[in-house]
């Protein structure tokens, strides 16, 4: 019996990689599927993994009727056993319902991948509907880490390395790399373009609540670090 499975986790925990791997494995065993995505970091109509692989995909827009798309293709003789749906946090609730209908009425397996919550810790509408409707919600085995080494549970948005809590729910972007490394890059780019650099950083709850990013922690550490030698008393 077909299933609707929601594979979820923070940003950068391997969801798109798993999506591409599952598609590969099913295809290798002769099953036919469709890939869908929505606002991937690498552009439209693509599923991209930070590890390198990417595959073309059908872009889901606000007006896409997923049920109608599957019916249309099947009517034209296309065989569809499963769907790989990436970035599902951006799908509308009604589109998740169309996916559930495809599982129940057309026996199509649906493997959905996405983050559950936004930079304000609120559920995205698509993810909320998936949590409500999925046969299973599976957290990814690979954990993204906070800069402190704990498991990251939250997706923080940063502007020039500083965590922000106001803004639009949707802003396509990427995670910063290492202790401030990319922040510096972002600052340089921002200075060149005059546009603030928007990024994301995965944090544990403690550091999300305290708004302590890798960048601010490194600044605080530098302020608190003792001088390497004693300054001699001047006469
Ligand atoms: N240069 C690299 N070497 C090894 N692993 C990497 C490298 N870059 C990224 N990764 C892995 O890829 C993961 C991100 O995979 P991706 O599928 O793009 O994540 P998601 O879709 O969940 O945002 C990282 O957690 C890391 O394990
Ligand atoms: C937290 C948060 C994220 N986004 C965007 C940023 C990325 O483009 C995607 C997540 O992609 P990933 O493959 O899981 O890294 O979502 C957003 O628009 N709003 C947010 O609050």
Detailed description of the structure:
Keywords: ATP-binding, DNA synthesis, Kinase, Nucleotide-binding, Transferase. Belongs to the thymidine kinase family. GO terms for molecular function: ATP binding; thymidine kinase activity. This is Thymidine kinase. Helix 3 (93-106) runs parallel beside helix 4. The chain has 235 residues and is of the alpha/beta class. Mean pLDDT is 90; it is low at 178-190. The strands form three sheets. It has a six-stranded parallel β-sheet with strand order 5-2-6-7-1-8, with helices on both faces. A three-stranded antiparallel β-sheet has the order 10-9-11. A two-stranded antiparallel sheet has the order 3-4. The protein has helices spanning 15-28, 66-75, 93-106, 125-133, 181-193, 205-209, 214-224; strands at 4-8, 33-37, 46-48, 54-56, 58-59, 82-85, 109-114, 136-139, 154-159, 162-164, 198-203. It folds into two domains: 4-139, P-loop containing nucleotide triphosphate hydrolases (Rossmann fold), CATH 3.40.50.300; 154-224, no CATH class. A hairpin with a 2-residue loop joins strand 9 and strand 10. The protein binds adenosine-5'-diphosphate and the ligand Cc1cn([C@H]2C[C@H](O)[C@@H](COP(=O)(O)O)O2)c(=O)[nH]c1=O. Adenosine-5'-diphosphate is lined by residues 11-17, 49-51, 142, 144.
